[in-house]
Specification:
With 412 residues, the protein is of the alpha/beta class. It folds into 3 domains: 137 residues, Rossmann fold; 181 residues, NAD(P)-binding Rossmann-like Domain (Rossmann fold, 3-Layer(aba) Sandwich); 86 residues, ACT domain (Alpha-Beta Plaits, 2-Layer Sandwich). 33% of the residues lie in helices and 19% in strands. The chain contains 13 helices and 16 strands. The strands form 3 sheets. A 7-stranded parallel sheet has the order 8-7-6-9-10-11-12, sandwiched between helices. A 5-stranded parallel sheet has the order 2-1-3-4-5. The chain has a 4-stranded antiparallel sheet with strand order 14-15-13-16, sandwiched between helices. Strand 9, helix 9 and strand 10 form a beta-alpha-beta unit. Helix 5 crosses helix 7. The two termini are 17 Å apart. The structure holds 1,4-dihydronicotinamide adenine dinucleotide. The site of 1,4-dihydronicotinamide adenine dinucleotide has 30 residues, from helix 5 and helix 7.
Length: 412
């Protein structure tokens, strides 16, 4: 059962050297019981920390599986201070009534900026020139070097990153075409094309900003490459599975593709220091980076703020907006009400049982919000302040005791 605690007693454990901005933001909101660790703890240490934590903040190294979560009875929220959340068993967390938050947009600008740098670098053949110079070869020539102004950029995937790249490229004087499976509003002078082939036949340089889905997997294959203009440059700063690497090396060998910039790969080393192996190693015209397009100091600091903010909002107000595994409930402030939060199994009769507890007590409900997702329901009930805190605690205990209740919490 979840008790209601003063903020200073809400234990928050932040692992893996999470940015200081997170700690500052949490402290600023009154959460002072924060333990920070610079590493990802071994299982025994992690288990001990989780036994006491109300919230845990992790990055990509700490794995939170079902067995570990089952041993964290006080845990009410998880913050992934990164983009990915596959290090957490999201379904197990949801079944235990634990929302998981992440920071999907904090590094958008970082990826967009590096994409612009890749566009200019590829159009000037900087990767090739840099490689030659490192071999002591001086080759001063304008051959294969172009300004980006007036060139056509094709953007595949016009979401957060793709649209930012569009704005920046437009400002550089590029002609921007984009293709997206969803209807998207064009920014500036960019123009949407109805079919990807239209973009392929016109673009001097193509950049991919799509998620990994069955449709995007291998979308840059031999056929797609053959539809592109001869001498095209290609950027993949999205997901490694998008490009068929063998098809790309053939196109590089034939000269059909003049250059490429890749930050993500079908197989990536798991740890720093491991050897990177790819058929692309050794190609002078290919700019390779180790999945760092979104990794900047600014992105880290934004991630700290974004996830801390989501934890604070959930703890103070009950809103789960932005949770990746949980019913999304966006709540107004509850200044003149006690707020009762209940997470329950999504089974028939649950809501009527909860409402029965409250109506038997003659409670005046000023607001009720319910959302369900998969196997759980999340209901938030605002109760008029004329009801005493003691009574509300009694209702909480009765609701928590109902069969199917997972967690019940009060915000006074
Ligand atoms: P987003 O979700 O805002 O945008 C993705 C866009 O792709 C959406 O507009 C969607 O409608 C579109 N799309 C989906 N399937 C498509 C298809 N088959 N053809 C054309 N368009 C399609 O995502 P966001 O934030 O812009 O990220 C884009 C990609 O960048 C993701 O794969 C993400 O994982 C990756 N990324 C890589 C980073 C790195 O360090 N290299 C860092 C951050 C994101």
């Amino acid at each position: 059962m979840e008790l209601s605690l003063p903020k200073e007693d809400v234990t928050i454990v932040l692992l893996e050297n999470i940015a200081d901005t997170a700690v500052e933001r949490l402290r600023g909101a009154g959460y002072t019981s924060i333990t920070t660790l610079s590493h990802s703890p071994e299982p025994a240490e992690l288990e001990a920390l989780l036994a006491e934590a109300r919230f845990v903040g992790i990055r990509s190294r700490t794995k939170l599986d079902a067995a570990l979560l089952a041993k964290a009875p006080k845990l009410i929220g998880i913050g992934c201070f990164c983009i990915g959340t596959n290090q957490v068993d999201l379904e197990a967390a949801r079944s235990l009534g634990i929302p998981v938050f992440n920071a999907p947009f904090s590094n958008t600008r970082s990826v967009a900026e590096l994409t612009i740098s890749a566009i200019i670098s590829l159009m000037r053949d900087l990767p090739g020139k840099n490689a030659q110079m490192h071999r002591g070869q001086w080759h001063k020539s304008a051959e294969d070097s172009y300004e980006v102004r007036g060139k056509t950029l094709g953007i595949v995937g016009y979401g957060n990153i793709g649209s930012q790249v569009s704005v920046l490229a437009d400002a550089l004087g590029m002609r921007v075409l984009f293709y997206d499976t969803a209807t998207k509003l064009a920014h500036g002078n960019a123009r949407c094309v109805a079919h990807i082939e239209e973009l392929y036949t016109q673009a001097d340089i193509i950049t991919y900003h799509v998620p990994e889905t069955p449709q995007t997997k291998g979308m840059v294959d031999e056929r797609a490459l053959s539809n592109m203009k001869s001498g095209v440059r290609i950027i993949n700063y999205a997901r490694g599975s998008i490009i068929d690497i063998d098809a790309l090396t053939h196109a590089l060998d034939s000269g059909h593709v003049a250059g490429a910039a890749l930050d993500v790969f079908p197989e990536e080393p798991e740890q720093n220091g491991e050897t990177f192996i790819s058929p692309l190693c050794g190609y002078d015209s290919v700019l390779l980076t180790p999945h760092v397009a979104g990794s900047t100091q600014e992105a880290q600091s934004n991630i700290g703020l974004e996830v801390a903010e989501k934890i604070i909002t959930y703890s103070d107000n009950g809103s789960t907006t932005g949770a990746v595994n949980f019913p999304a409930v966006a709540l107004p402030p509850h200044e003149n009400a006690h707020r009762l939060l209940n997470i329950h199994q999504n089974v028939p009769g649950m809501m009527s049982a909860i409402n029965q507890v409250l109506s038997a007590g003659g409670v005046n409900i000023t607001g009720q919000f319910l959302q369900t997702q998969a196997n759980i329901g999340y209901v938030v009930i605002d109760i008029e302040k004329s009801t005493s805190a003691e009574e509300v605690r009694r209702y909480r205990d009765e609701i928590q005791a109902l069969s199917g209740s997972i967690r019940t919490r009060i915000l006074h």
